[in-house]
Each structure stands twice: as structure tokens, then as C-alpha cells.
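## Example record

The block below lists the input lines for one assembly entry, exactly as stored, with component labels intact.
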Amino acid sequence: MILTDAKIKFLEEKANDIRMSIIEMLLEAGSGHTAGPLGMADIFALLFFHTLKQDPKNPSSPERDRLVLSNGHICPVYYATMAHAGYFPISELKTLRKFGSRLQGHPHREFMPWLETSSGPLGSGISQAVGMAIAERIDRGVGSNKFIYCLTSDGEHDEGNTWEAILLGAKEKLHNLIVIVDRNNIQIDGFTEDVMPLNDLAQKYEAFNWHVQEVDGHNFEAMNSAISKAQAVFEKPSVIIARTIPGKGVPEFERDFRWHGYDPNGAKAKEDYTHALKELRTLGGKIKSEHQ
Amino acid sequence: MLNPKLKLNPKVFMDDVAQEPIRKGFGVGLVQAGEKYENIVALCADLTESTQMLPFKEKFPNRFVEIGVAEQNLVTVASGMAAMGKRPFCSSYAMFSPGRNWEQIRTTITYNDRPVVIVGSHAGVSVGPDGGTHQAIEDIALMRVLPNMIVLSPCDSIEAKKATMALGSIEKPAYLRLAREKTAIITTEETPFQIGKAEIFFAPDGVAHVGIIATGALVRTAMLAARDLEKEGIKVKVMNLSTIKPLDTEAVINLAKETKKIITVEEHQVMAGMGSAVAECLAQNYPVPIEFIGIQNKYGQSGKPEELIEHYGMGRESIKEAVRKIMKRS
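Predicted C-alpha cells for the full assembly:
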């Protein structure tokens, strides 16, 4: 779907609103994940305000595209985007992680039925999206124009379940499945390449017989074009490896991510990174870090 | 005597009683359920023939998904299909599913309240020569602890067929426990079956001294023990508890009220299994002495099914011994 300059400007504004909401809700909650949600704000804005066939006024329409959030811990960006898209009042975002809130610390669809699934424990999202794509094919055949999107993270590729799903998606040639990987190179214990090297993730997906694209996850035009291409692929499932900057959009944190652009294995980069990540994860010491 | 209302198999106590693996009834039931309910789909993890999914696969190839040896994927793909309105049955050996993929079942199926049926075949030590790695004796515990989950453990192949049909139309997650070995046919096509309802299969005349609550393939063993004991003047009622969750609390409490002594019989660890479910119910509502027949905090090993059942204290003689023991308790 074509993106005009005016639409790009609109999406930039929406992403900015979403980021502000994320910061506000995390400060109010006093805990939660920061880097991932901020880094994915652009992609969420693109999906909810441009790509997805969904209607907040008719959220359970069977014709809607499905969005599976596999890495549930980035739900602040999910909730903030849903609120800005009109699924529920923006004021409700302040209830995040509080008793009785529909905005559970990790998504729970019993509390918020518009979610396609609950998540938090990692590595099961692509499998569920694969199941949805197979079910859709059983019902509508290959002519279905409904897409199943799965948002996952690079860290989730440590999980065996993820690779089981990647195998099956290719075997079943699920052209209606589009996986977007948040390639931000971090996980809780540090750089993904230190914790568990993924090396060339694109090559891995290619070897598993997926259609692979690697794009700048903050470039609306590039992301939109990649999604359009993925929708047009017919003989295999698609993955878009979206390179993102954790904490994107918050200059005082983002500025400190000097590892992004120079050798991430350099000692100085690691020191800077560790400091910046700590700052980001606590929003400058104002909230508790995740899983503390 | 056999409960006449239930139209049980009159040959149940005979040596030449017809035998069939419990899992076979599931296979037949799945095809029938598939004919009746179009939204039923089946998924298997490289054990299609031995878990009896082959007839369904052959009849409805478009509604069957071969997952390969990947049990975590098995149940999460099923969850995704359920989210789109399907009623998935996913089968493997109980040791691998739910043995390996418990968290995925919890988060994506029961936490989401998705109507997926986990079919755990080859449960219990009666798997035999394959040995302890393949003998699931913890699966009832793993499944009954999950909110929203229904847990069924049929006593023969006919009941397994009826259980499968019943699960075809229930919009809840469920676990169906099956066994590998040939098992004597206790029930008939006319025997009523309802999820959540326990039935007295064997009852002596008059008030019973002891109540046995049994599940799965050991129901007949318990009935044989009760018949033996009748000759010794000990009156024992035997209940078939094929729905372990939700528990038929009324039936369990009524049996305890009558007999004041309960023995539970299951091919499973005594910790956290069916006996524990009964004990939880009675401790709260009508405390009576209980003896637990089952695996006593051990693992299985290779052997013939009947040897293993004897060795681990779940045979006819062990049940009789437990009855004599509980008669001395007050």
C-alpha cells in the first residue's frame, strides 16, 4: 500500500505520541521494559495506522488481519498503539501493571480480549501464527487475502520452539505469514552476539527456505515497501529483519548508544553501552529495571 | 455385581473378554467426531500411526498437519488454529506431550482458554519394554493443575471413543489420557458417558465397607479385586472416575459417606494425581481414611506390562492388600 509524504509525516507524529505514552505509562507503573517498546514504536505505528486490516470499532471481525506479539514484554508499545488507534481510552494506559488493569504486565487476552494471544514466555509466537495461517488456508484456500503477522525479537531466536515453527512455516509454504524480527541486538544479559550469537540471521532464514528482507526498522518507506513485497510472495513465508535502535526516540538514551555504528566488541563501546542500557532500563533511575 | 443401569459388558470378568487398546477407541472416535464437526483438525508429532491418528489423516488429509518431532510446536500451532475457530486434537506420547511442552500448553492454551485437546497416548508403566523414559506417570498432575483444563482418563476403548466424541463439541482445553496396551472391554456402546460424571461400576448387595475409586486401565483390575474380596465377606464398591477434572465431587463424597473408607487406584505417581484430587475433595468435605494405589515416588523400567503393574504395587493382589489394610483403620 502506497505511503505518501503526508502519510509518513502522520506516522512520524503517531510514533512520537506512542513513545510519549510509553514513557508516561512506564513512569506511572514504576517497572517494565523500556528499550524494546521504544525501538518498535515506528513499526507499530506503521502497522496500526497503515498496514493492518483491522477496525477498532469492530475489533473481533473475522476478516481482520491477525497480529501475534511473540515477545510479550514489549507490550507497552502494543497497548500505547492500541489506545492511540482507538481500541480503548488513552487515559487507561496509566493503569499498566496495576491490580485489576486490562493492561497486564505481559499481555493476557482474558483481560483484554482484542489481543490475539497471551505472551511473555518467549519463543511461541511464530508457532501460533503458523497455526493461524494453516487454519486460514484450510478455510479459504490459497486465495485468502488475510495476512497473519508475527512480531518477534532476535533474542527469541535462542528458543528451540522458534526454529520448530520456522521449519514448519517453510514446509507448509505459508505465503500468508509475515514475520517481523526486531533485530535490536540486545537481550537481558547483553548483546545478542555475546549471549548467544545469531550471526547472519538472514542467511539462517534463507537456509530454512523463507523469503528474507533486511531493512531499517525506523524507515517507514523501507518497512512499508518490505511489507508490500512480503505480501506479494506466493511460494513461501516471509521474514522481515528490522534493524532497530533500542530506546529510539529518547535522545538522552539513544545518544548514549554509541555501540550502534562502531565495533560492538570494543571495550569502550561495551562500557558505554552497559551504562546507557542501565540508564534506559531504569529511565534514568526513575523505575525498576525489568526482571530485577 | 455389575451396576445393571450402566449396561456394562457381561463378559467383563471372563478370561476371554474382548480386549483392545484404549488408544484405538480414540482413533475411531476422532474420525466420527471429524465427520460430525467440520472444525475438528488433527496434528501429530511423528507418531501418527501409534497414536491412532492415521484413520483421520486418511479420511481428512486437508485437516491433518504433520508437525514432525517437535512437541512444543505441536501444541502452539494447535493454539493458533484454535484461535481461528478450529477444534484441534494434537497427539503424541504423554511423556512428550504434555511431558515436554507444559509451559506452551499453559501460556498458549489454558491461559488463553483455547479449545485444544492434548492427547497423551502411551501413558503409565504399562508401555512396558520401552522403559522409564517413555512411561508417563506425572501427566495427570501436570494437566490437572492448570485452570480451564478438563482431564479425562477413559477405562477402555469404547469409553475413549465416547470421550473423544464428547470433546469434539466442548469449547474448552482438555487432556485425554490413553494407554498403549490391549485392555479388557468393560463398557458397551449403551453405557452412558458424560464428561464430569463418575459411575459406580461394581457394587455388592447392601452397604459397602470400602469404596475404590479407579481410573484408566486399572478400573477392571479394581473390579476383579472387589469380586475376590466379596468371597472373603468384604463388600467393596468400585467407581470409574474417567473425568479427573472437573471432579464429580458429589459422587466422591457420597461414596465416602457410605463406605467411610476410600482407596484410589491409578497408573500414575500417587503425588498430585487422581488420588490427590480425591483426597483434596474429601479432606475439605468428608474426611475419611484413604489408601493410595499408584507409583510410590519412583520411575518405571523395562518389563512386561503385567510384571510392571505388579512390581509397582498396582495389581489385583496389591489392591486387595490395601483393602484389608484400610479395614483395620478407623
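Residues 22-36 of chain B form the longest helix (15 residues). The mean pLDDT of chain B is 97.
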